[in-house]
Amino acid sequence: MEKDRDGFRQNRGDWAGGTCASETQRARKGSALEVLKVAVRLGLTSFGGPVAHLGYYREECVIRRKWLDEKTYADLVALCQMLPGPASSQVGMAIGLIRAGFPGALAFWTGFTLPSALALMAFACALQGIQIKGTGWVHGLLVVAVAVVARAVWGMARGLASDRLRGTIAVLSAVVAVLWQSALSQVLIIASAGVFGWILLPKGPGREASPLRIPFSRRAAWIAWGLFFGLLFLLPLWREVASSRWPAILDSFYRTGSLVFGGGHVVLPLLEAEVVSPGWMTPDQFLAGYGAAQAVPGPLFTFAAYLGMLIGGWPGALLATVSIFFPSFLLIVGTLPFWDRIRTRPEFQRALDGIHAAVVGILSAALYDPLWTEAIRTPWDFSLALMAFALLMIWKVPPWAVVLLCAAGGALLYLCG
């Protein structure tokens, strides 16, 4: 187990009988049911958007269950930030894939996505006319997201940006990410940090990264790439010749999931062009669903479930949801084996060190905007976020419990205000 020495260095205290507990846990293959249980919990409690999701993932899969080490998790985050599609959902799929193969990837996606998708389908049926964004409990959920992300940034910075050069890369990445917000900015920041890391970080013999357990061959990866581009180019042709609405739904949502960089809110104008312009719904219906999407946990891309429900009922919701996420699955399957081979080469480690520092900077920037700017408006908001941070960092309260407490605290502040 010499390969994994560096990846488990921070867990030396877990040695018992000559075997590291975290190493043993990661060496064995997990089950899809195990992954599903974790994903459902995350899907019910992960409020605050994609950056907060990464904090929740880290808490459950890196800190608590030790399925991955810190550097491997940062590698996955960096990879998914560079791919089109919802980065947080792609990280979840990758974790499930590494842990339990293709059933694990499906289990993670299902558990993390289903709660918000069902909630948004219910909103499409019954709650389109209710204003929910300004309610106190929703604001409390934004506040707790600040605490969750702050904890993730703190923990990752201590391990991934602790020296002068990497700390400087992290700070500069945060500055650029705050001042230059575009769909391609994160990709360029990560690429630049990799180059700077390669050139500036000290040269050494290189360390061996903890290798990922990839449960499929490169042949499967090439098949995934073929499916990704094949569907991207063939679905518009099928849409043109078909008389049914279903190929059009499949094409619109698959193409959106394939081409959007930045994830989250970036997908909204693309979706609006796809569903409002053809007359499938009114702008007011679209914006009502957007408001509902802000109040549910899980990925914002489940907004597709709401839109599909309006377009074609339950079958439309299912087709739209699967279609918008399917490109992400194909990209992860197609990229992961090659990414793992590159990241374990000693000569590539300096570039990865720079990328890790950039990930810390990007998360720090997102902690400020949109999380801090949206959530922290009054001294009471700051006090609630600070107490949530203390509960997570000092008292080690489970994140889901802190989420519930902050939702109740936000509702109480709304009533008192």
TrEMBL record:
Membrane topology: Multi-pass membrane protein
Domain of life of the source: Bacteria
Amino acid composition bias (Basic and acidic residues), ranges on this chain: 1-12
InterPro entries hit by this protein: Chr_Tranpt_l_chain, Chromate_transpt
TM ranges: 106-130, 136-157, 169-200, 220-238, 317-339, 351-368, 388-415
Gene Ontology, cellular component aspect: plasma membrane
Pfam families found in the cross-reference section: Chromate_transp (PF02417)
Segments for region (Disordered): 1-20
Keyword Coiled coil: no
Subcellular location: Cell membrane
Single GO MF descriptor: chromate transmembrane transporter activity
Keyword annotations: Cell membrane, Membrane, Transmembrane, Transmembrane helix
Family: Belongs to the chromate ion transporter (CHR) (TC 2.A.51) family.
Protein name stated in the entry: Chromate transporter
Protein species of origin: Planifilum fulgidum
Lineage start: Bacteria, Bacillati, Bacillota, Bacilli, Bacillales
